[in-house]
Design a protein that fits this description.
Blueprint (H helix, E strand, L loop, with lengths): L2 H21 L8 E10 L2 E5 L5 E5 H6 L3 E3 L4 E5 H36 L1 H6 L1 H4 L7 E3 L12 H10 L1 H4 E3 L6 E9 L5 E8 L5 E9 H12 L13 H13 L1
Parallel strand pairs: 6-8
Antiparallel strand pairs: 1-2, 1-5, 2-3, 4-5, 7-8, 8-9, 9-10
Helix pairs in contact: 3-9, 6-8
Length: 248
């Protein structure tokens, strides 16, 4: 064999070995998360992750997945993907309940917010309190769709009264829209509102065009994209403060 052929054969062998070594390289092992075992009743285990979310499982899930229990530490060692599969639905459900709770508080607080609107506009901490109000859109997403600072909502109510005010069917008072959803494509919209006089609420009223309800508040929100959030109160803190001042 000539020298050139020998060099070619050696080079080919080296390349093949390198390729084979890479192909046969062991895959990185999945991370294992220690999950607290907070209770055991027979075959039922109650688990709690680092976020404080709890889950009850049957012992069969431990056996079927080949999981190891660290009895001394009181922990179940679970692969990361399995942890996500177990706890993510619980996290989403908890988040959904929390969003609904804040939305209910917001709807109930509309009369208080309206009475205290001048104070809200003058106080940066109150102005920046993040409400649960957002423009909910079908199929698309747009910038400045929320959730909105409390001051932005008050500005929309006061500066675009004809857009965000309805007549209360119960007492004839002023109803303010606190929730908007719809489609920029079809123009259809739905809104919910609360009466500032009697507290009557209307939910998911199909009325008006999407643009007429969405555009004003989105335009105002665009002025506050860089609004500092460090000093802003949470929505619950803002409502507690307004209630406290009201009682003084």
């Amino acid at each position: 064999m000539t020298d050139k052929k020998k060099q070619y054969a050696q080079k080919t062998a080296t390349s093949f070995r390198t390729f084979s070594q890479r192909a046969d390289a062991p895959k990185t092992a999945e991370a294992v998360i220690p999950i607290d075992i907070v209770d055991r009743q027979g075959r039922n285990y109650t688990l709690r992750n680092a976020e404080g979310l709890q889950l009850r499982i049957d012992e069969s899930l431990i056996v079927d997945n080949g999981l190891h229990i660290d009895a001394q530490a009181g922990k179940l060692l679970v692969p990361e993907s399995l942890v996500r599969g177990w706890f993510e639905p619980i996290r989403r459900e908890q988040q959904k309940r929390e969003e609904q709770r804040l939305q209910d508080l917001f709807a109930k607080s509309v009369p208080l917010i309206w009475r205290q609107r001048e104070r809200i506009l003058a106080d940066p901490q109150l102005f920046g309190a993040r409400t649960p109000m957002r423009i909910r859109m079908a199929y698309v997403s747009m910038r400045d769709s929320g959730p909105y600072p409390l001051g932005v909502v008050v500005r929309a109510w006061t500066e675009y009264e004809e857009r965000y005010t309805r007549v209360c069917p119960k007492c004839g008072g002023r109803m303010l829209i606190y929730s908007v959803s719809g489609s920029p494509l079809s123009g259809r919209s739905s809104h919910s509102a609360t009466c500032t006089a009697c507290g009557c609420q209307q939910h998911h009223v199909d009325e008006g065009s999407f643009g007429s309800l969405a555009s004003p508040i989105m335009r105002i929100a665009s002025e506050y994209r860089d609004l500092p959030k460090g000093d802003a109160l949470s929505f619950e803190e803002a409502m507690a403060l307004l209630n406290k001042r009201k009682s003084l």
